Amino acid sequence: MTVLAAQEAIDGLTASEPKRRFCVAPMMSHTDRHFRYFLRLLSRHSMLYTEMLTTGALLHGDTDRYVRYHAAEHPVGMQLGGSDPGELASCAKIAADYGYDEINLNAGCPSKRVKSGHFGACLMAEPGLVAECVAAMAAASGLPITVKTRIGIDDYDSYEHLGRFISTVAQAGCSTFIIHARKAWLQGLSPRQNRSVPPLQYDLVYRLKQDFPGLEIIINGGITSLAEVRNHLLHVDGVMLGRAVCNNPYMLIGVDKNLFGVNNMPGTRKQILQNYMRYMEAEMANGEHLYAMSRHILGLFHGQHGARAYRRHLTANGHKSNAGVEIVDEALALTGNKYQNAGNK
Question: Which SS3 state, helix, strand or coil, does residue 276 take?
């Protein structure tokens, strides 16, 4: 199969209103364009997102390097970090010009760097400002604007405050909210701790859907299996997974059939990896380094024979300056499989 054929095999969705029944969370250092392409080999219908892109980076940095993506990634949303309506509007226009399907505003990240920049989870204390940002982005782009947030922060942790936040922002034109079902402590906990220490309160997210039936409510936080996803879908409109997908990306193999009713046949782990290897070869021909792509496939053989040896080989060799796709071929062989390209029959 040629690189073009591999791309065409996963390209079938146009840039239209995205379906968010199943989403993969925007994650710093994870959901770059290479990881999104890899995930699209596993599921054609999951909603994918960029890493959080700050307004400063987009407006004053190498914009194309941050926002370019492969057409096969649709539906794909851009997550923005910022709090200035004008700057966010300018970035929203960039997202529209590049053909993104959605813009998501980060109002849930609890890191100190984000807080010092006056965006992320601290915005939960300023629903009026978030509403201004949403309205400005919608007017500038014409794209759906969604907001990812927490159930609360610090002392702003009552259900009444959460409801006011949702109601205020919804009136500005946001009809989709992605809710991480934990509060965030902006003082005293690290970002890693904020992903696990505050207790999950799924019932509050369910209650939001009951109280705001006209809004699309997506639940996020601590979800690790498609069985859990199906259970949550009894109460909300969609589910977002993050770290679980990084650890075991092959879990996405059942998403299209079980959650979207589309009987895709993405293939075995070996077949998925073979398609991704062709993509890696094409990217390396354009100057990309192997490790920028191979780091995303460490969990592909999660729970399978040879998985540890596979991961160890990729980790030990993928970062070398002269590393080629043969490193991935060697790792694959450690699982009992062997990839052979046209020149290696």
Answer: helix
pLDDT tens sequence across 106-138: 998 887 665 556 778 899 999 999 999 999 999
Question: Where would I find the H helices in 171-268?
Answer: 191-194, 202-211, 226-232, 243-247, 255-260
User: What pLDDT does 194 receive?
Assistant: 66
Relative to beta strand 48-49, strand 76-81 is parallel
What is the set of active-site residues?
109
Closest CA to 223 of 188, 189, 259, 190: 259
Contact 328, 316 (CB under 8 A): no
Per-residue tokens: 37? 């392409």
- The 10 Å Cβ neighbour count of residue 57 is 18
DSSP code, position 13: -
Please choose, from the candidates 131, 132, 191, the residue with its C-alpha nearest in 3D space to the C-alpha of residue 166.
Answer: 131
Q: Report pTM.
A: 0.90
> How many residues make up the chain in this entry?
345
The string over 177-206, giving b where at least 16 C-beta atoms fall within 10 Å of a residue's C-beta and e elsewhere, is bbbbbbbbbbeeeebeebbeebebbbebbb
Between 275 and 4, whose confidence is greater?
275
Q: What is the pLDDT of residues 67-94, one digit of tens each?
A: 999 999 999 999 999 999 999 999 999 9
